[in-house]
From TrEMBL:
It catalyses: guanosine(966) in 16S rRNA + S-adenosyl-L-methionine = N(2)-methylguanosine(966) in 16S rRNA + S-adenosyl-L-homocysteine + H(+). Its EC number is 2.1.1.171. GO terms for molecular function: 16S rRNA (guanine(966)-N(2))-methyltransferase activity; nucleic acid binding. Keywords: Methyltransferase, rRNA processing, S-adenosyl-L-methionine, Transferase. This is Ribosomal RNA small subunit methyltransferase D. It comes from Methylophaga aminisulfidivorans. The keyword Transferase applies.
């Protein structure tokens, strides 16, 4: 009697880098709860926004997940990309991908965003904030970045949020530059202007 094995579910997903020196290279990521790789259309719009700023920039990807934003930044000429991920499985996959892509500018940290912020040094030119939507960490992360003085004047901050969820008040020094919607996701680009008051 022939036994039929059940097909195993695919434990990984993949996306491709869409621009720069690594264009077309595949990024694999684990299928874990809360991990939402930023899609091609949104990434294309975002990096069009960031085109004047990305070259030789210091970037911070606080909820790196699949690595879509961090590796895309490296591909497009960022001088340093700090990628922070708290999930062990996702972190190990990021580490493997960085080795496969030979992206020496990527620096990986296995810790929470708040843990990283509390001990980080220096300033960043571009910051990506795309946490699991259920965690609702946008406002607390934004405040911490300002309090820890991790942003250069004029730094760009990218933020993704669900359309149906209002974000608590962001720092008055964050000025909205761009905002678009794709499906149920709203994505925004802010500029940090220190000393500004509401």
């Amino acid at each position: 009697m022939t036994k039929h094995r059940k097909k195993q579910s695919n434990t990984e997903g993949s996306i491709r880098i869409i621009g720069g020196t690594l264009r077309g290279r595949k990024i694999s990521f684990p299928n874990i709860q809360g991990l939402r790789p930023t899609g091609d259309r949104i990434r294309e719009t975002l990096f069009n926004w960031l085109q004047p700023d990305i070259g030789d920039s210091r970037c911070l990807d606080l909820f790196s997940g699949s690595g879509a934003l961090g590796f895309e930044s490296a591909s497009r000429g960022a001088a340093e990309v700090v990628m922070v991920e708290s999930d062990s499985h996702a972190y190990m996959q990021l580490k493997q991908q960085a080795e496969l892509l030979k992206t020496s500018v990527c620096k990986l940290h296995h810790q929470t965003a708040q843990q990283f912020i509390s001990s980080a040094q220096g300033h960043f030119d571009i910051v990506y904030i795309d946490p699991p939507f259920s965690a609702q960490l946008w406002a607390s992360i934004a405040d911490s970045l300002v309090l820890q003085s991790l942003l250069h004047a004029g730094a760009k901050i990218y933020l993704e949020q669900p359309r149906q969820m209002a974000i608590d008040t962001l720092p008055p020094s964050w000025f909205l530059l761009k905002e678009k919607q794709a499906g149920d996701v709203i994505y925004c680009l802010f500029e940090y202007q220190p000393g500004a008051k509401s």
